Amino acid sequence: MDDLMRVRQMETGTPPLTHEARSAARLRLRSAISEETRPHRSAALSRRLVLRVAVAATVAAVAGTAVVATRGGEDRDASRMTTLSAAQVLHRAADRSRSDSAGLPIPRDDQYLYTRTYITQKPLEGGKTKTWTDESWLSVDGSKPSKRQEHGKIRNDPPRSKHDWVWPPTAYADLKKLPTDPDELLDLFRHGSKSTPENDASAFFEACLLMKAPRVMPPGLQAAAFEALAKIPGVRLDHNQVDALGRHGIAISHPKASFTFVFDRETYDYLGLRTKGSGLKRVKGGLELDGWYFEMRSLDELGVVDRIGQRPQS
Fold first, then answer.
1. Which backbone phi and psi does 112 adopt, to 5 degrees?
2. CA 273 → CA 1, 112, 214, 295, 299, distances in Å?
């Protein structure tokens, strides 16, 4: 009981723990308990050592320094010891997205959504990396012509007719109609089907398509997409990933999909989308895939403007 009293006393007069600090402390405690209950262990941790881990974790959280108890009872520096799950990263990315979208102007229907996207394409078998900086001006409600770039090539899209239907939507007016509830959005990604390995992989792919093309998300939609991804079984985490602008991040992927979401490892900002692709070459009897590459798309700037060719003011 003395150790528990110490924990309570240390919390007295201190500010509440941050979410990251509390998660770190909880993770260390669970790890110690897991070690204690592991079978066939030659030197199992004692219950008192588990409590000492809780004390050390609380001290670390209050002090803002990551400290972990070793088997010998000594403390050592272990900065960034917290191991987050893929779902936790996606939830933090959702929180960050909501914070960022709060400052984005809500466009009028007669305006344009401006995006500047940086793209790199690196051959798998070696060779020169290709780069593009694509700019796009998308009519908010689709009633005006739009101008966009894809790998440097300019596309002039005519106004959308009343009978045109695109999935996932690119027009802001259509994106506003999508649900911002993660469960409803995930059901939409699955097209109303139940969760199966195939439908889950398809839902992950649908979310990737939503993020791939030049578009500006209405408030709450991107966050809902990340939280919907967190509900898909099988999503996995990769701690070492670099985006098209050279920023180091962490990635979320699915074993049956060729797309990977990349987030800043410190702020959980969404950095872009990475995919594996290929070209085509003619062979006897048809075409076959050839020239495999990794492509990374990073959104560099977005904003709302009044006409094609205009860029947001710095």
1. -125, 145
2. 51, 23, 12, 8, 9
d(CA 230, CA 252): 10
Q: Are 147 and 153 in contact (CB under 8 A)?
A: no
Q: Is 163 left (phi over 0), alpha (psi -120 to 50) or beta?
A: alpha
Q: How far is CA 164 from CA 77, 171, 213, in A?
A: 59, 11, 17
Strand, coil or helix: 225: helix
CA distances from 165 to 113, 160, 246 (A): 19, 9, 36
CA distance 210 to 270: 14
d(CA 165, CA 220): 23
Q: Whats the size of the chain, residue-wise?
A: 314
Query: Distance between CA atoms of 212 and 209, rounded to whole angstroms?
Result: 5
Instruction: Express each pLDDT in 60-78 by its tens digit.
Output: 333 333 333 333 333 333 2
* Cα–Cα distance measured from residue 195 to residue 213, given in angstroms and rounded to the nearest whole number: 26
What is the number of other CB atoms lying within 10 angstroms of the CB of residue 188?
18
For the segment 270-296, the average pLDDT, to the nearest whole number, is: 85
Residues 269, 243 contacting (CB under 8 angstroms): no
User: Cα separation of 117 and 128, whole Å?
Assistant: 20
* Residues facing residue 133 across a β-bridge: 118
Q: Would you call 206 helix, strand, or coil by DSSP?
A: helix
Torsion, Cα 290 274 90 11, to 10 degrees, reads: 130
Tell me the pLDDT tens digit for each residue of 197-239: 999 999 999 999 898 876 778 889 999 999 999 999 989 998 7
